[in-house]
């Protein structure tokens, strides 16, 4: 397990890079769910965000939203191969996990628990790899339940992510942030089932919104597209 080494200057640069990258890649970034979401979270408590993992963009989108809107020190569990290939991720809060090595996996779980006790926010993708957005069941790994058991004070926040093309040449990034999940008194197996249901419910809402082209709260708009320029120039 390779620990994170956050650097303020690297975080400053990465925050801006994520903002620009999302604007280049997507037409809009939508948020769905509770309209009063920013007031539902207690900044004095640690938060564990768990999300499905359909794309390379997941960590970038989450980093942007959490750093821009919730402003809590944030760490993210990243596959060991990705950390080895892109070591700068450590400077922006990334720490590694090698799922092929059980001892390394346990070390990553302990590290995540320690960060939550700081308190900070930790982002994990319990599917463990990029998986198609329509896969059911989601197939969460058991490590997330161990993290929750290690820090019962943490707010557990389910996040659903989806990317679709609507009417523009650039895609729409859709995010559903759910209400905190109470895992008190649940066994590890029950926790996994409860968390999968929470994220699946968010995904179902995103699927419904996307099929009907229903806008969420637009957190970020992309650069003007060619079709927009054409409409603007039309008499």
Give structural attributes.
7 helices, 8-stranded mixed β-sheet, single chain, alpha/beta, 235 residues, Glycerol-3-phosphate (1)-acyltransferase, globular
Give your account of this protein's structure.
The chain is α/β, with parallel strands linked by helices and 235 residues long. The chain has a single domain, classed as Glycerol-3-phosphate (1)-acyltransferase, CATH 3.40.1130.10. 39% of the residues lie in helices and 21% in strands. It has 7 helices and 8 strands. It has an 8-stranded mixed β-sheet, sandwiched between helices. It starts with 7 loop residues before the first helix and ends with a helix.
CA(first)-CA(last) distance: 60 Å
What is the number of domains? 1
Spatial strand arrangement across the major sheet: 4-3-5-2-6-7-1-8
The CATH level-2 architecture is identified as 3-Layer(aba) Sandwich
How do the helices and strands follow one another from N- to C-terminus?
A: HEEHEHEHEHEEHEH
Mean pLDDT comes to 92
| Major sheet size, sense and barrel closure | 8 strands, mixed
Strand tally, please?
A: 8
CATH fold label: Glycerol-3-phosphate (1)-acyltransferase
Indicate the overall shape: globular
Protein structure class: alpha/beta
- So what's the CATH class? Alpha Beta
CATH superfamily: Glycerol-3-phosphate (1)-acyltransferase
């Amino acid at each position: 397990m390779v620990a994170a080494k956050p650097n303020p200057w690297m975080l400053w640069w990465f925050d801006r890079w994520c903002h620009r990258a999302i604007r280049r890649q997507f037409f809009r970034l939508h948020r769905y769910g509770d309209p009063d979401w920013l007031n539902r979270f207690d900044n004095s408590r640690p938060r564990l965000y768990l999300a499905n993992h359909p794309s390379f963009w997941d960590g970038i989108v989450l980093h942007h939203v959490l750093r821009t809107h919730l402003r809590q020190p944030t760490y993210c569990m990243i596959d060991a191969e990705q950390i080895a290939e892109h070591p700068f991720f450590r400077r922006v809060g990334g720490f590694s996990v090698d799922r092929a090595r059980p001892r390394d996996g346990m070390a990553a779980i302990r590290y995540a628990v320690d960060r939550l006790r700081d308190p900070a926010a930790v982002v994990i993708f319990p599917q463990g790899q990029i998986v198609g957005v329509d896969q059911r069941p989601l197939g969460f790994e058991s490590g997330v339940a161990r993290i929750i058991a290690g820090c019962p004070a943490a707010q557990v926040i389910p996040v659903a992510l989806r990317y679709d093309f609507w009417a523009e040449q650039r895609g729409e990034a859709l995010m559903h942030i759910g209400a905190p999940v109470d895992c008190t008194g649940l066994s590890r197996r029950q926790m996994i089932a409860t968390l999968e249901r929470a994220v699946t419910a968010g995904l179902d809402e995103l699927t419904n919104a996307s099929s009907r082209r229903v806008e969420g709260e637009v957190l970020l708009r992309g650069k003007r597209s060619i079709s927009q320029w054409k409409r603007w120039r039309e008499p």
